[in-house]
Amino acid sequence: MTISECIDSVLSQSFSDFEVIVGNDYPLLRISHELLGISDPRARFLNYAENLGELGNMRHLLEQSRGHYFTWLADDDTYAREFLALAYAVLKSQNFPPVLFTGYSIGQTPPKVESEGLSSRVLVLSGRRFLNGYLKRSFKVIGCYGLFDTNYLRKIGGMERLGNGFSPYSDNLLAIR
Length: 177
What we know:
alpha+beta, 3-stranded antiparallel sheet, two-stranded parallel sheet, 7 helices, 33% helix, 10% strand, globular
């Protein structure tokens, strides 16, 4: 998996109202549309003079975001082609809540999900019910990969640092908050 494949999986979505902001934490190599062979104007590249670290990069990307919803992807992750269209349909059907968590799959081929019958696959949970299921691992959720109302995410401070360096539990705290 390459960063180009990650970005391409977003840019090739059937739903097209989004922006892609890539934060480059490696100061010795400037990334650009030309370097990655991407001509889509929805992609912006931010090349930092110094390494901000994972959480610093995430916070800076959140500050730069202009969209109503915000999420993160690591450079080795991809979206199924209908992901954003299905996520938008759920957000709209639920009157645009502050956060939408989705399941995920591991491997090269994502499962096929059709918009028909989608409502039977959506769980609307109170904070307590969500937290209980999340902590019991009753459903597959990665905290930082939720789709967050941008203003809500800014209000709660985005991802917090737990311990020294990036903690694998930082995204858990975000899901709990």
